[in-house]
Write a structure and sequence with these properties.
Elements lengths: L12 H9 L9 H11 L9 E3 L2 E3 L2 H13 L1
Antiparallel strand pairs: 1-2
């Protein structure tokens, strides 16, 4: 049985993960060097739309809709 999401459950998804093992590690180093390496390797940055619902993030709108509908049916 699944309960409906409460406002507390709709926090930022990173809250859930960071509480399980501590704060996420911070990247160190030279950002310009990282950019140069990405460029050298032909790796490109791509902007994506992210959908957030119930403390989870989805890159597929249909998955977010399905999750919300499942919760509404309970």
């Amino acid at each position: 049985m699944t309960r409906k999401a409460t406002p507390d459950q709709t926090r930022d998804a990173s809250d859930n993960w960071e509480n399980e093992g501590g704060q996420a590690s911070r990247r160190t180093g030279n950002p310009a060097a990282s950019h140069q390496e990405l460029e050298r390797l032909g790796i490109k940055s791509v902007a994506t739309t992210t959908y957030e619902w119930g403390g989870y993030r989805y890159t597929n709108a249909a998955d977010a809709i399905a999750a919300a509908k499942r919760a509404a049916d309970d």
